[in-house]
């Protein structure tokens, strides 16, 4: 048993101040972190509860879009009238993830930080996992790799990002707001997660001690011309073998611009830039999708 301390700050500044130590973890719903702690994968010595910071609101953004607090539960985000009406792609992605019970607990901020479900990462019985033990090797390269990365992988890691929500956020060109010891900053969803390279133990571009506070969704016509599709081994509570989020800006039936993002195939949501650009200027009546 690892000695563990717990704190529950009442404001964001206090939470950021409390999160400075590398063994301190922020906790919201805990649906991923607690499992990893039980398995011995994550070993925090201090938990900072961020459930009481006022981050559980969904409200209009200044640019006419929508701001979703990092503490909003996935179920509440999926069923919020503004999300269902103006961002149905995101609602579809939320409802495709996990079970109803987990969605009731999981938060938007936690969803952004989901760790891979690679068998070699979550089971400490396997010694070779560069994500869990940097420098130990990657057992998946010559082992069970059916659900692992086919794009953007490296010789150090072939794990994939498991989140449905993350794929939708990149398709919607969302912006993630964070606050840290050095102040506030914004990170585009497409830049938030990183490829494994030589350091697969680093999942995101967050800096040490930064706290996710909210996600901003822009107001564009693409939000209405969008869809999320997920293929999996069973119809519920399963991670994607592959998923895709598509959002198109249309003028009539002509594509002005589009974003095609693939999930379940890489260490981060994979923005299919060439395929997206291939749709530009094309009429949906005449597009040969086999060429995209």
Would you give an account of this structure?
It contains eleven helices and twelve strands. The protein has helices at residues 12-18, 33-38, 74-79, 81-86, 88-96, 100-105, 108-112, 119-122, 164-171, 189-192, 273-278; strands spanning 5-7, 24-27, 46-49, 58-60, 66-69, 175-180, 183-188, 211-217, 226-231, 242-251, 254-263, 270-271. The strands form three sheets. The protein has a five-stranded antiparallel beta sheet. Strands 9-10-11-12 form a four-stranded antiparallel beta sheet. Strands 1-3-2 form a three-stranded parallel beta sheet, with no helix packed on it. Helix 5 packs antiparallel against helix 9 (164-171). The model has no long low-confidence stretch (mean pLDDT 95).
Please state how the strands of the largest beta sheet are arranged side by side.
Answer: 4-5-8-6-7
| Terminal CA distance | 53 Å
Helix content: 10-25%
The low-confidence parts are none
Task: Classify the beta-strand content into a percent band.
Answer: 15-25%
Radius of gyration over alpha carbons?
Answer: 19 Å
What best-fitting shape do the alpha-carbon axes yield?
A: globular
Q: What order do the SSEs take from the amino end to the carboxyl end, as H and E?
A: EHEHEEEHHHHHHHEEHEEEEEH
Strands, count? 12
Mean pLDDT over all positions: 95
The main β sheet shows up as:
5 strands, antiparallel
- Number of helical runs? 11
Which structural category fits the helices and strands? alpha+beta
